[in-house]
From TrEMBL:
Pfam families (alphabetical): FAD-depend_C
Protein name: FAD-binding protein
Residue ranges that the Swiss-Prot or TrEMBL entry lists as coiled coil: none
Domain of life, source organism: Bacteria
Family matches, as SUPFAM superfamilies: FAD/NAD(P)-binding domain (SSF51905)
Taxonomic source organism: Flavobacterium agricola
The organism's taxonomic lineage, starting at the top: Bacteria, Pseudomonadati, Bacteroidota, Flavobacteriia, Flavobacteriales
Domain FAD-dependent protein C-terminal: 270-466
InterPro entries linked to this entry: FAD-binding_protein, FAD-depend_C, FAD/NAD-bd_sf
C-alpha cells in the first residue's frame, strides 16, 4: 500500500526526481524499479545549520498500488440569474471569493469595483511608474484583484483560526495557480500569474449569472432606520439590495469618511508603519544560507525578523525575495511604497517592509478626527514624504547605516523603485519616536542577522499601508455591522484580515452568513 514518509534531503536531491527516487528506494528498502510513483505533499527549507536541508513529506506508490492523486475541482456553482441579489463592494480576493461563495449557495452577487479590470489596470501602473501620474481610481491598490494582484502573491497566513486555508488554496489552483502552492510551506503565486487567475474568477462569476461592474464607484449607502436598502453610485444610479458585503480594502479612505459622515460606527485601529528596505539578494542569501553563493537548487532567501525596541515591536513585513519596490499611492500628493516579486523571484534585489507598531495614543495630535485619527496620521506622513522628495512619485531614501547615524547619504544608487529616489534624512519624514525606534532597531537587526546592517541597504519611505487604520465593527456571530442590519464589513478594509488568503477566507465567511440570513 502507499506509504507516507517524512524525509530531510539536500537541495540537490530535492530538485532531482531521479535522485529523490533513489533516496526513497533506499529508505523503503526496495529497488527503484519497485517505486511506481511518488508525490511531494509538503516542502520546507531548514537553513538552521550550515548544511541546508529540504524537509519533504512524500507519499510513495509501489508496483502493486493504485495511484490516487488529489483532484482539484471547482465547487458546484448554481445558475443565479434569477436568484435573490446581494451587493459585493470590491473586486479583490475578499470580494471575488465572497461572490463565488454566494453563487455556490444560490445568491446572485453584484460586484462593484471602482477601478478597472486587471488588464486595463496596467496602463495606470505604467503611468505612475514612468510619468508620476496617480489615478485615484486605478492604481496598485484599486482595481480588479485589489492590492494583492500586483503584489508578491503571498498565500500564507499566521492565523489558523480564520478558516479553511486549504480550501482557499485549492480554489486558486482550480482557477489556474500551480499545485505547488499546496505543497510549499510559504507559497506564493507571483504578480505575473495573479492577473490571469483573477480574470478567470471574474469569468466564472459572470458565467453563472453574477455581475461584475468595473469603474463603478460607490458614493453613498441607502439606509432606512437601521437597515441597508442599497447603494448610490457616482453616476447617480441606485442599486437596491438589503445585503451588502463591504470588501473595499485598507486604502479606500473615502469609504471610511462616508461612514463617519453618516454616523455609522467605526473605530480607530492600531497599525504599523515604517520604511521599505532593499538589499542585494545575494547579500540576503549569504546571510540566510551561510554561503557565498546559494547555487541552483535553493530559491532566493527570504527573512523574517522581530525585535522589541523602546518597548515597541519592530519587524519585517511582506518580505519579497528577488522582488522590486512599487509606488502605491492612491491619491495625488502622497507617496507610498510596497513590494512584490514575480513568480520566479528572479530580480537581483530583496526588499521588505520594516515597520514599527503604533498605538492609539500615538494618534493624539489628530484626535479631532475621531475614529479617522490613525488614517490622518498615516496620510500626514505620506504627504510629508511627497513634499520633501520633490512633489513627484520619487521617494525619500537613505542608506541604512547613514539613517541610524543621522547622516544624509551623499549618493543613493539606482534601486528597483522605478520612479526614483531623493536623498533625504528620513527623520524629516517620521515623528521623533518612530524615527528613534527605527534608528536603534536597525542596529539590533544587524546583531541577529550578521551583515544586514549595511550601507548597501537602501531605505525607502514610507511603508505605510500595512493594514487598515480603521476597524468597521461587526457582530461576532452574524458578521453584520452592529448598527446597520444587512451590512457585512469584510476583510482587510474592515480590519479583519491581513493578506490574500485571510481576505479570501473572510469573504467566504461573510458570504455564508449573508446567504443564511437571506435564504432562510
Amino acid at each position: 500500500m502507499p506509504t507516507e514518509v517524512q524525509i530531510q534531503v539536500s537541495p540537490e536531491v530535492a530538485a532531482s526526481p531521479l535522485l529523490l527516487k533513489d533516496f526513497l528506494a533506499k529508505l523503503t528498502r526496495v529497488s527503484p524499479s519497485e517505486i511506481k510513483h511518488f508525490s511531494i505533499l509538503k516542502r520546507s527549507i531548514d537553513a538552521r545549520q550550515r548544511a541546508i536541508k529540504i524537509n519533504l513529506k512524500v507519499v510513495v506508490f509501489f508496483t502493486d498500488d493504485e495511484i490516487v492523486e488529489q483532484e482539484i475541482t471547482l465547487p458546484n456553482y448554481k445558475d443565479v440569474r434569477l436568484a435573490p441579489e446581494a451587493i459585493v463592494v470590491g473586486a479583490g480576493p475578499a470580494g471575488y471569493f465572497a461572490a463565488l461563495q454566494l453563487i455556490e449557495l444560490g445568491v446572485k452577487p453584484i460586484v462593484l469595483e471602482r477601478g478597472k479590470d486587471v488588464r486595463a489596470r496596467r496602463r495606470d501602473l505604467k503611468a505612475i511608474n514612468q510619468e508620476h501620474i496617480v489615478n485615484p481610481e486605478s492604481n496598485y491598490c484599486f482595481g480588479e484583484g485589489g492590492a494583492g494582484t500586483y503584489s508578491d502573491g503571498k498565500l500564507y497566513t499566521r492565523s489558523k483560526k480564520r478558516g479553511d486555508v486549504n480550501r482557499a488554496l485549492e480554489v486558486l489552483v482550480a482557477f489556474g495557480a500551480s499545485k505547488e502552492i499546496l505543497v510549499d510551506a510559504h507559497p506564493h503565486i507571483g504578480t505575473n500569474k495573479l492577473p490571469g487567475i483573477m480574470a478567470a474568477m471574474r469569468e466564472k462569476i459572470i458565467e453563472f449569472g453574477g455581475q461584475v461592474l468595473f469603474e463603478t464607484k460607490l458614493v453613498d449607502f441607502i439606509i432606512k432606520g437601521n437597515q441597508i436598502e442599497g447603494v448610490v453610485l457616482e453616476n447617480g444610479d441606485k442599486i437596491a439590495a438589503k445585503k451588502v458585503i463591504l470588501a473595499t480594502g485598507h486604502s479606500a479612505r473615502d469609504i471610511y469618511e462616508l461612514l463617519d459622515r453618516k454616523q455609522v460606527l467605526i473605530e480607530a485601529k492600531p497599525f504599523a508603519l515604517g520604511v521599505r528596505a532593499e538589499h542585494p539578494q545575494t547579500l540576503i542569501d549569504s546571510i540566510q544560507y551561510s554561503c557565498d553563493f546559494r547555487g541552483e537548487f535553493l530559491p532566493p532567501a527570504p527573512y523574517s525578523i522581530v525585535k522589541q525596541v523602546n518597548g515597541r515591536g519592530m519587524y519585517s513585513f511582506c518580505m519579497c525575495p528577488g522582488g522590486i519596490i512599487a509606488p502605491c499611492a492612491t491619491a495625488p500628493g502622497e507617496v507610498v511604497t510596497n513590494g512584490w516579486s514575480p513568480s520566479k523571484r528572479d530580480q537581483p534585489t530583496a526588499n521588505s517592509g520594516i515597520v514599527v507598531e503604533l498605538r492609539l495614543e500615538d494618534f493624539k495630535p489628530f484626535a479631532k478626527h475621531g475614529a479617522l485619527a490613525g488614517m490622518e496620521f498615516q496620510k500626514a506622513i505620506e504627504q510629508q514624504a511627497f513634499k520633501i522628495a520633490g512633489s513627484t512619485q520619487r521617494v525619500p531614501a537613505q542608506r541604512m547605516v547613514d539613517f541610524s547615524k543621522k547622516i544624509v547619504s551623499a549618493e543613493i544608487p539606482k534601486t528597483s523603485y522605478v520612479p526614483g529616489t531623493t536623498s533625504i534624512e528620513l527623520g524629516e519624514v517620521f515623528p521623533g519616536f518612530l524615527t528613534e525606534t527605527m534608528r536603534q532597531g536597525f542596529v539590533e537587526f544587524g546583531k541577529s542577522m550578521k551583515g544586514y546592517f549595511t550601507n548597501e541597504a537602501i531605505l525607502h519611505a514610507p511603508e505605510s499601508r500595512t493594514s487598515s487604520p480603521v476597524r468597521i465593527p461587526r457582530d461576532d456571530f452574524s458578521l453584520e455591522h452592529p448598527q446597520i442590519k444587512g451590512l457585512y464589513p469584510c476583510a482587510e478594509g474592515a480590519g479583519y484580515a491581513g493578506g490574500i488568503i485571510s481576505a479570501a477566507i473572510d469573504g467566504e465567511k461573510c458570504a455564508i452568513k449573508l446567504a443564511q440570513s437571506l435564504l432562510t
